[in-house]
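dumping this here before i forget
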Amino acid sequence: MLKRACLSKKSAYFVSRVCLREQSAMATASEQNEVKERFTFFWLKDSPFSQFHPSWFKVDDIMYCCAEQYMMYQKAVVFEDHEIGQQILETDVPPEIKALGRQVRNYDDDIWNAHCQRVVKEGNRSKFTQNPLLLKKLLATKGTTLVEASPNDTKWGIGLHEKNPKAFNRSTWRGQNLLGAILTELRDELLTEMAGSSEESNSEEEQFTFFFRKESPFSQFHPAEFKVDDVTFNCAEQYMMYQKAVVFEDHAIGQQILECDVPPQIKALGRQVRNYNDDVWNAHCQRVVKEGNRAKFTQNPHLRKALLATQGTTLVEASPRDRKWGIGLSEKNMKAHNRKTWRGQNLLGAILTELRDELIAEGAGSSGESSSDDQT
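structure:
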């Protein structure tokens, strides 16, 4: 009996040990599950992941100033409200863009819900793939779930501020976090697409902001009114061609240039300047282009903001035909992503890069920052 009792005690002891081990293992597994999902919280326009964050990108030859503008414009397109769509494109203030989106006529909630997530993903793909610095920040969140910690948005965000303890547990979120989920999915897709790329190591050394055609704020043809010496110009190309006429004292052509507001025609008039000398113009042209662009960007706050947002990158005019002012390559050409394989000098890109760095050093744009609201 004593022997059996001892065995019984030993059995109970081992059972207890096993139970404790199982409980410990379960606790460890539970802790691992909690650690398994990490979050990258964001909110408000200062975050590169916000729909309101300033970031120029192009889709179907239309330039957008932020992902919110793309989303609201596509909303107008879906419901064929061309008037509101045009107003959205003409506005560069995100809260106003959002308000215009709410005015879209013939709106139907079910129809928009069938489109909106695709639209947001498309817009953000263009935003991040066309802005190297933003792409780098997105890819740096690898291994985490992006979470829009908007306390007021229970559709695109989680309905909680990141300081709220409930924000750290998916089961206690008050919102769907649609924007965060889309960005997380997009990031993982981009990482997969970039895996094994031989250019990845080089991209950290020099990042590029490509531009081409008048839709880009960095193009000489982009509409932008500014004044120099009491003369008003409608774009940087007009300033350049007018100064060309001034250098060679061709007042007749100079006057025609000032009366014209079609950039290709202005450029054609510039080629008609009499007494032209290539060496003389080459000694002046880069100074002229820089002066014109300084006036253009300092007198147009939204353009200045777009220029300063390229900080840390080299601006590159990806013109496949221009080997003087551009690189002689389209941005889709892989050779465009390596300075050593450019076919052109990129004079315009170099001037804009230098100008941007000067404006940053001077503190340009520091007073132009404004607060923002919830987005989307």
